[in-house]
Amino acid sequence: MNSIFRAMQRQVARDRDATCDRCYRWGGEMVARLKPRALLDVGCGDGSFLFKYLDYQPELFCGVEAAPALKTKAEARGIRVEGFDLNGPWPYAENTFDVVHSAQVIEHLHNTKLFAMEILRVLKPGGTAVIASENLTSFLNLSAMILGYTPFSLLRVCGHYLGNPLGLHYGERDDQGVPLTHPAYAGVTGHIRVPTVLQAKELFELVGFVEVNCRSLGLMPVPDCVGRHLEGLMPRRGHFLTLQARKPQ
After folding, report:
1. What CATH number does residue 100 fall under?
2. Rounded Cα distance, 44 and 47, in Å
3. Contact 127/40 with Cβ under 8 angstroms?
4. N or C: which end of the chain has fewer CB within 10 A?
5. Distance, CA of 151 to CA of 138 (rounded, Å)
6. pLDDT per residue as tens digits for the range 40-56
């Protein structure tokens, strides 16, 4: 029985990671279609991600990255990178960017309203926000709560897995040997405020965005080969959410 459970756990982990990759790919492809001349990537890492999708160098390409080593690598790629607290005001002028992209960042912040407000402020009129996050009301999180466990999206606290013995990737390391519980993956404090699909949509509408389109991907623990065909029927139950919104002209 234990071996069957572990096999199921590994399959859910693989499906979760594949869906995460699909979520990132959605963001990259969306940015590429928009072809921004001025682009801001909030949480840009080493700067390599969006260049997988862009076949040109934007005239202005800025990034935000807190990790010094990643910031240095991104700067070497020609990105103007800043490191600052995203819970406070941003050091960019109003109406600067055509597109603001941010993947898996908003859930690490305290002041999510200011985050959305600052994106709106720095976008040019008609500019687009391309956002991705985990979704608190996913089937995967709900299955944990039904069993009395911490939701998967909230179990990492300061690099520790707490409150959920079903946690994915326990004890695993990346290709460089870094534990997947390292703050580089979990964030300095882990996830703080994980939005739902409806909450994210209403937040961006609240601060002034229009044409806000928010949906979710990944119906784990339903196998991904089945779940991805059902996502359109259950747009609020996937484990990752994607949001596209436009600043009014």
Report:
1. 3.40.50.150
2. 5
3. no
4. N
5. 9
6. 999 999 999 999 999 99
